[in-house]
Amino acid sequence: MKNILTSEQMREADRHTIATEPIASVDLMERAALAFVKAFMQLHRDKNVSILICCGTGNNGGDGLAVARLLQQHGYDNVTVWIARFASRQSTDFATNLAKLHYCPIPVSEFFPSDEFPAVTQSILIDALLGSGLNKLLDGDWLRLVQHLNAARIPSIAVDIPTGLPADGIVPSTAQMLYAREAITFQRPKLSFFFPESAKAMDKFHVVDIGLDEVFIENLPADFKLVEASDIRGILRGRKRFSHKGTYGHALIIAGNTHTMGAALLCAGASVYSGAGLTTACIPAEGLLALNARYPEVMYTPRETLAENWEDADAVAVGPGLGLTVDLQHMLEYPAKPLVLDADALTLLARNKSLMKKLPPNSVLTPHMKEFDRLFGEHSNWWDRVNTARRRAVQHQTVIVLKNQYTFMIMPDGQVYINPTGNPAMASGGMGDVLTGMLTAFLAQGYPPQEATILACYMHGSAGDRLAAEGMAVIPATELIAAIPVTWDAIVQSNC
Ligand SMILES: NC(=O)C1=CN([C@@H]2O[C@H](COP(=O)(O)OP(=O)(O)OC[C@H]3O[C@@H](n4cnc5c(N)ncnc54)[C@H](O)[C@@H]3O)[C@@H](O)[C@H]2O)[C@@H](O)CC1
Ligand SMILES: [K+]
């Protein structure tokens, strides 16, 4: 796991590194600029390309000036610098880098409040106007300049963070940003990069190491952690010699209805392919033929004999395609089992919120945004939504899997894990049912809820990434199920 820091913590890490390495602040800026340039050169190998570097007068602007000098030294001969002199203050390191730039053959133009901006004639923009120091929404001359640059419609590469995007906290829907094709960000992705609102600010981001003290960073109390492949390799267990189906647990899937039987099948299929020793689907009898045809590995039980099957199960999923006529309250009176509630089960919970108190501790809820808001109230932004999820997870001692491009996995202690895998090709019906089946299978195999959640979300996204890399622009849920075992194997086999 990697700690994801707030902008205040990032400043702390800067200060700590400067004091203890020790390194002068301007040398740290040089290191950051070098790291940026190295990454930039991978993205844009053509050294004849014309580049406009727009700089503010803080440290983000200082980075921009150092980048201009370093690019020129690396043979990029067509670099122009604009400086936005809209603030009366400039940082010391900005001033030092401006003085250094005077020895380089790079044209520099300065713009003051109310100045007209010339047309942008360059092919690439490097955005070093404002970075993590952003403390209010863009307005006035800053907004005018950003709109002018956006209107030029040339690819922009942001230094650290696109101008106008707060590094953390609420991103208001009215916020305007300098749109970046890519952001090259320092040391850690910024929190807001994981929120859907950042889609307005950039297409993608790259993280570059600028040598901040990693031990210090990892010892900071961080509410958000990013899951990495090495964590999954640490959690995922291989199949044991002399093991048998009983070793890997029994998953019970309570799902399906006349018109939504597919959800139950997908969920049960995902459980089989995620290694549950046995999977039983508790579905209406009319789904039996389809179940046998599609997944003969799955056993069937009618709703009437649910109580006995519940006794035998090691983990239970309730919800995919279930409909809203089942008695969830009654089910929650059965003996406590590792439990996943999804889809219609979440709607039933939302209709009768007092049932939240009956959930066994560590139950896993897997809402998408709308289901979450139905359960816990409307939210106008993701920052508030995730913070509500943290409070509710603690209050109800549940795991909340808030599904998103980067799924937030919120644990009963309020800690948030961010899943890095997955892609837009997976945005299709049935994907959530597959995730629920995977989660239930891992719970049935005896993984604790926190680990089962992290495993399921990571492998779900990873299977999707694998298929996308093979050329699938759209991934049907059934294809994803089939890719789970090979994804699993690739994770176990990889040693990087
Ligand atoms: N030692 C360090 O602190 C390092 C900082 N680095 C760079 O420094 C950046 C942060 O620099 P700063 O803290 O100087 O801040 P910025 O350069 O992001 O912003 C400069 C100043 O602009 C003002 N401002 C903020 N939002 C505004 C708005 N909407 N309208 C008008 N003015 C606004 C604030 O007074 C702010 O301090 C990082 O993003 C990164 O690029 C890197 O050089 C790495 C090392
Ligand atoms: K920037």
UniProtKB/TrEMBL annotation:
Pfam families: Carb_kinase, YjeF_N. It catalyses: (6S)-NADHX + ADP = AMP + phosphate + NADH + H(+); (6R)-NADPHX = (6S)-NADPHX; (6R)-NADHX = (6S)-NADHX; (6S)-NADPHX + ADP = AMP + phosphate + NADPH + H(+). GO terms for biological process: metabolite repair; nicotinamide nucleotide metabolic process. Keywords: ATP-binding, Isomerase, Kinase, Lyase, Metal-binding, Multifunctional enzyme, NAD, NADP, Nucleotide-binding, Potassium, Transferase. Its EC number is 4.2.1.136, 5.1.99.6. SUPFAM superfamilies: Ribokinase-like, YjeF N-terminal domain-like. K(+) binds at N60, D127, T163. InterPro entries: Carbohydrate_kinase_pred_CS (IPR017953), CARKD (IPR000631), Nnr (IPR030677), Rhodanese-like_dom (IPR001763), Ribokinase-like (IPR029056), YjeF_N_dom (IPR004443), YjeF_N_dom_sf (IPR036652). It comes from the Bacteria. GO terms for molecular function: ADP-dependent NAD(P)H-hydrate dehydratase activity; ATP binding; kinase activity; metal ion binding; NAD(P)HX epimerase activity. Binds 1 potassium ion per subunit. AMP binds at K403, N404, Q405, Y406, T407, G432. Residues 10-218 form the YjeF N-terminal domain. (6S)-NADPHX binds at residues 59-63, 131-137, 160, 263, 321, 368, 433. Its cofactor is Mg(2+); K(+). Residues 228-491 form the YjeF C-terminal domain. Residues 35-91 form the Rhodanese domain. In the C-terminal section; belongs to the NnrD/CARKD family. Catalyzes the dehydration of the S-form of NAD(P)HX at the expense of ADP, which is converted to AMP. Together with NAD(P)HX epimerase, which catalyzes the epimerization of the S- and R-forms, the enzyme allows the repair of both epimers of NAD(P)HX, a damaged form of NAD(P)H that is a result of enzymatic or heat-dependent hydration. Catalyzes the epimerization of the S- and R-forms of NAD(P)HX, a damaged form of NAD(P)H that is a result of enzymatic or heat-dependent hydration. This is a prerequisite for the S-specific NAD(P)H-hydrate dehydratase to allow the repair of both epimers of NAD(P)HX. Homotetramer. This is Bifunctional NAD(P)H-hydrate repair enzyme. It comes from Parapedobacter composti. The gene is nnrE.
